[in-house]
Request: fold
Amino acid sequence: MLSDLRFAFRQLLKNPGFTVVAVLTLALGIGANAGIFSLLYAIVWRPLPVKDPVGLVNLHQGFSGKNARYIYHGLYRVSYPEYLNYRDRGAAVADLIAFEESKLTVGGAEASKLNAVFATGNYFSMLGATTELGRTWSAAECAAPGACPFAVLSYDFWQRQFGGDRGVIGRTISLNRQPITILGIAARDFRGVDITVPDVWVPLLMREQLVPEPGQLTARDFSWLRVIGRLKPGVSAAQARQAFNLIAAQSDLDATITSHPERKSNVQIKPGAFFNSPEELGHGLPIAAVAMTMVGLVLLAVCANVSNLFLARASVRRREIGVRLALGASRGRLVRQLLTESFLLSAVAGIAALGVVMALPRLWVAWIPGPPINLSFTPNAVVLGYCATVSLLAGIGFGLAPALQSTRLDLNSILAAQSSLLGRRIAGARLRHVLVVTQVTISFVLLIAAGLLVRGLQRALTADLGLERNNVFVLSPDTKASRYDAAHTSAYYSQLYERFNALPGVKAVALAAVVPFTGSRNEMAASEPTTAADASGRTLVNVNLVSPNYFTTLGIGLVRGRHFTEAEAQSHLPLAIVSQAMADRFWPGADPIGRRFSNGDPQPYEVIGVARNVSTLSPGQIDGPFFYRAAIPNGEIALSLVVHAVAGRTDLTKTMRELATALDPNVAFSIRSFAENIGLALRPAELAALLSGSLGLLAVGLVAVGLYGVMAYVVSQRTKEIGVRIALGAPPARVQRQFIAEGVRLVGIGVAIGLVLAIASTHVLVRALFGLSPLDPPTFSGVAALLATIAIVACWLPARKASRVDPMEALRHE
Reply:
């Protein structure tokens, strides 16, 4: 084995050009594959970044049967009474913590939002957290609601907000207008167990003092807390799951824990990681599968390309291999030697790929907007093992077929130096052609995916949204965090409304609970008449609460009916304006004006108008059933101000910020334009297009190199034949056409196979195409034309050389 390695090493050093090209090609393919795996592993499987993560588990509580539950953060989270029940009765765990991610307003010269975590008293002790300064709170200190007005700051927030001042311990900061004492500064390496790095940790029992949503700590059927436990020594995850499911079954009958005795709870225990609840995996795994499939296809194309390089190199060594066979070497022995060279090459490429493995996830995360992400991409044993496995499989993938092909020789012709006799089929031609067709097929599928995603983005950016998209700005204040009462809230909005409306260049100002392209609110609704117990005819519809002038401010036309009046908004009458899509769904073929529908409120809504369909949930896609209610600032509903300005007011956001800060510097707010909101909404699609486009271009480059290499090799092997043809009067142009036609034929076969695969697979991209057909003709024809052009260019260069062969030189060479 050592002798094989030494010989393989010498062979690779003797051909530095071949070795460098093969290593770089393989490193890109292996690195892209392992890099995407590293990103997925960091999110779903990597142990949480805390001291001694072994034994940490996520507890996910799901339900079946009849159950009505308020989902605040996620379906598989728990209520506080449920957490206490699991904590006090969970004999399988040494400790159990609960926490919630939140946003708080920190006061100062200008209020701002920060990332906060409300955590139970045993949070820091169970996770083994230490402090840079001060201390953390204990469970004994936080035994009663409101008794522990403390905060622990993250190291980064301490540096950013206080400049690393070591005298902050004992000071108070204003969080949601409540004085909170700084108890400690977390150690630099402790960043919590949430994927977003927190700025501050606050005791969970202070939540109702900071967030004006009373009753959450006592609510029985309320999914809002994430739970993590530490298993006792010797207890497996399966044993813990069995124990917790027994507790859950008993809790289903306990009226102090649930108000729905018909429910059936089930608990899943997963290794401690950021995202691995069934709900999260259900959303993320299809995306992960598509990403891994794409990088897997690229790796397959890389292997096909390197296989072609090995076949071309093997043709130079045919006499060497023939002599070794003639001297008694077995075919198996030579195959082992050639595979050793492949494995050595893939091992070097795997080491080189580590740079891609470390860089790719970081580049991906850097492209995502928002606060810092608490992910580690330092390769560990799992990532290195995956990279090594991929390298090993790649070595087999690109090395086995050339090794078998290269050792299947006619010794008589080899030893007689007659490897390219006129009319003889070139050795390995069929295999080389199969490899080129494989590369073309993969490239076609990847380019179709990239083309569809890019075209979908273009459609989203240029489609008619049914409302104004330019020169529209949104200010979203958080009056609830500032603990405004109804009167104060109404006065605040009225003053902002008047000040913004008085600005030069502002056309109109409106209010809305849901700003386009930032999310949605939905309810179950049914057309009247219906009974309260009959939910079979209910449909999920989207709803927005808007001021009466919302439609004119954004240019949303009414198909029929009328707008709300100010008096109707003030009196909270149950009136609604429905979208055309909702009217068609609820009252097809009938006039919806005057009709009624119910959404569970005490009084049904009466339809007074039908609005034009718009795209506010996803750019380029028409919203489904939608209705609007009249809203005024009352302190119960968070509203945003939508400002429609004249063109050219680039300084408007600065002026809006100054006016809002002057009105009340303790109210945190955000300001964005519609263009920014659309950009954020399209960011996932942009990331998908960037990934597929990069992989597609890499595959196309491999096709060009591979096709050129095959045709150049064919020309070199058929030099005598070409010379004879030209000597017999064949025009050079005819020789060129012959070789170009051969290459185009291979590309045509690859495109035909890729077309079938693309048609069968592009349906998985439908949700990211913004209404574009997954069989978009311009995309398919454009990709086919691109590959045909590449084929012609890649084949023309060797063909041009072939047409210039001197017959006498060719025959003398032979």
